[in-house]
Amino acid sequence: MGVSLDEIVDLRTWLTAVRDIGDLRDVHGADWNLEIGAVSEVNYRLPSPSALLFDQITGYPAGMRVLTSSMSNARRLGLTLRLGTELDDHALVRALRGKPAQWLRDHEHYRARTVDTGPVMEVVERDEEIDLLSFPVPFWHEHDGGRYIGTGCAVFTTDPDTGWVNAGSYRMQVQHARGATINIEAGKHGAMHVREWFARHGRAPVTVTLGGDPLMVVAAGTEVPAGVSELDYVGAIQGRPVDVIPGEVTGLPVPANAEIVVEGWLRPEVTAEEGPFGEWTGYYSGGAGQVIMLEVERVYRRRDPILLGTPPGKPPHDYSYMRSVMKSSMILDALLATGLPEVREVWAHEEGGGRQLLAVSIDQKYAGHARQAGLLTSQLPAAAYMNKFVIVVDSDVDTRSLSEVMWAVCTRTEPAADIEILRKTWGSRVDPLADPGAPRYNTRAVIDACRPFERLADFPVVAEASRELCDRVVAKWPDLLGGR
């Protein structure tokens, strides 16, 4: 009898459920130096890639494992989000409609619950006992600046005034046995918390999960609004509070069912050379520079911990599919909440890392409707970070198909009239086009790829068979045409 969605309480039960549906593959004997990263990268490019669990890693005892590709297809992402395992791409997006907004409404009913202990406390390492490289931390990409322990991580910070706990997913490079740099983008909630702590107290408390239920990584990598804790958001998704233990050093939450959690302090004067790193844009962007370093004072872990890896890179990468699905649903909900009529679909394409290339479909109802949809989408909080292209299409175009979207651009867009350029919008240091040292702006284009409103009545008819005719011939020749 398999594990039900309600029985998933940690990474171990998640792995059992994934193995039950035949979506987990074991890899033995890989080297932490490049091989884990390369095997994972090749796997991402397979149709519907399986999750990979690496064991017997070169130089490490059996049982010290690394998991990658945790949410690289619809079945496992559906399982992680507690929506089911039989959803394809289209069904998953439909199932998510309204869910992020519902989770936000419900999060207050699922506040994180403080407990005395949990599996993460099986081993507690203090001060000189700590060695971050006792874990099989991969050297992910050939030109990385070092070994990155934090890819599938959740970095917990807190507002010094309100106590609001935020979780963000920021890359972490091991610098020495007890130190790891945390590269936080300036506009992120975690960076705001750290700046406030530095200004008031000269240091900032941090805890970090380095392995656990992938659901925490979903929340940490999603633009959850300020003031809402990702711990409570995860509680709303899974339908029960997240159990946490106060850290011995900072008092910040330590998720009780995690695999590995580190705790310590950031200080503005304690930095180290960080990077480069193969980022989600597909480049070693952002370069190398001095980054604040976490001085680790405690490690909480299970006896045989599993490090969760979600390394980015040229798409598709480890979490590009997850981000595309999550961003699509969140942007759609936000766009509908503006009151804009006749919005049909949104898709955040993996080619743009789930951020840079958005497609929106509408049924046009008035002159300017398409342009309004594009401009609104481009500046929604859920969509604004590092977005470069918003393409608005008619509802006959499948937003998930880049082929169809670009066909619409080529046949329904007049470049001189239908492309709006917005300047000095929210960019990122990982943009390969960013000038070193310059403010992190970018430029974005809103492309109207809808039929001209004034020509809706007489625009040429699309030359393709009707849905009814296609269904009829597939039913007649199912073996030939892929029917069932």
TrEMBL record:
Any one GO cellular component localisation term in the record: cytoplasm
Ranges of residues in domain 3-octaprenyl-4-hydroxybenzoate carboxy-lyase-like N-terminal: 18-87
The keyword Kinase belongs to this UniProt entry's keyword annotation: no
UniProt domain 3-octaprenyl-4-hydroxybenzoate carboxy-lyase-like C-terminal: residue ranges: 321-449
A Pfam family this chain is assigned to: UbiD
Gene3D superfamilies: UbiD C-terminal domain-like
BP GO annotations: cinnamic acid catabolic process; ferulate metabolic process
GO molecular function, one term: carboxy-lyase activity
NCBIfam families referenced in this protein's UniProt entry, alphabetically: UbiD family decarboxylase (TIGR00148)
PANTHER family in the record: 3-OCTAPRENYL-4-HYDROXYBENZOATE CARBOXY-LYASE-RELATED, FERULIC ACID DECARBOXYLASE 1
Protein name, as recorded: Ubiquinone biosynthesis protein UbiD
